[in-house]
Amino acid sequence: MKTVLFYLALTAAPLRATSLDDAQTIAVENSPRLKTLRAEIAEAETRFESTSLMGRPILGVAGGAEFEAMEDGQDLLPLAYGYFSYNLYNGDQTKFRRTIASAEISRLKDLLPFEERDIRLQVKDVYLDVLYTRLRLKLLEKEKMSFDRLKKQASQRRNAGLIGDADVLEFDLRSTDLNAEIEALKAEEQTEIAQLSASIGQAVAPSNQALPEIRSMERPDSANSSISTASMKRLERDRDLGMLEANLRKAQWAPQVDFEARAGRLPSEGVIEKHKPRVDALIVAKWDLFTGGQQTALLKETTDQATAVATALDEEKYKIELRKTKVLNELSLLKRKSESQSRRKTPAQRYYQAMLEEYNRGIKNSPDVAHAAEAVFDIDQQVLALHYQWAKAATELERIIGPAVPIQSP
């Protein structure tokens, strides 16, 4: 229900023209994903602060009673003392916990710009859809105006008795078909604008911009250093944290040495003068020689997880490298197709003009002129479609390696 109300609110609200940069900025500001990530960073920073306190000494008080059976009866002795303890050595567990907490902060902060880039590119994808639909609409409206002019000329020739009704109806039919296509594209445009508004959380409409110009793209020389995505960053974070967790598990096998001091009414512990306050201090070293295999199992589990993540990271790099190669090849192919289609436009226009002149002299009929006119506009639509596909592929390349560097075509 909330989704429906949100959609209705977006479609009912007045839309203002928004550039791509502004739409992306709004999406970043409103993104729940980025808000969640920033909250995770704040949580990780708090966790790091808590690990920084782990190595500090502990000061406290204790109280109770000691029951002891004696030869002349039973005795209940009160206990009340203060204590001070400080860990002298724990196999660097504190250091590893701090390192893990610090690494978590760094990984989350490193992930933030990649998540932001993904959000910007998602908005760009929808924005390009709207621009493409609008440009298709302009071409169809231009084509309709052309057929309306031809229809008007045909009506004048029919009134003069030079042609029959079939010639007029030829242009009228094509104009009617174009009207239906235009209305369908207008509905598609409104749907895409609503989708764009929903994706950024604000009612907007793209400003009238052209699609990005087709150009050649520089191929990155280094395959591994050039590809970098949010999914790879997550896997790298998990791999590094897994290795640190394994080091922590190993450190838990080390002995633990503590210093402890107590003062007050302490347990008797063989002391004759039980009721008198006293002070004692001791250094205790503990080393678990056998824990039922728990530590070994936990270490193996942590190591296996780190290995699995490292393998998944290698697989992700391989997949992304394939995607990068495929997209670069697609960009090159689309560029060649666009150049080929553009070279067809001038001959098609000359053919249309020649056909129109022969039609006016009564040599050609309406279907011939209509076919020639459609050929010109079909080429325009194909060139526009290639520009749109190129822009989408360039966006995908940017998602893989960051902003691509344009170079001049030879």
Summarize the model shown.
The protein has 9 helices and 8 strands. The chain is α+β, with helices and mostly antiparallel strands and 410 residues long. The chain is rod-shaped and about 135 Å long.
Describe the 3D structure.
The protein has 410 residues and is of the alpha+beta class. The chain has a domain at 2-30 and 106-229 and 320-407: Outer membrane efflux proteins (OEP). The chain has nine helices and eight strands. The strands form three sheets. The protein has a four-stranded antiparallel beta sheet with strand order 2-3-6-7, with no helix packed on it. Strands 1-4 form a two-stranded parallel sheet. It has a two-stranded antiparallel sheet with strand order 5-8. A hairpin with a 2-residue loop joins strand 2 (58-70) and strand 3 (73-89). Helix 2 (20-30) runs antiparallel to helix 4 (93-159), helix 4 runs antiparallel to helix 9 and helix 8 runs antiparallel to helix 9 (366-401). Residues 1-13, 220-225 and 404-410 have low confidence and may be disordered.
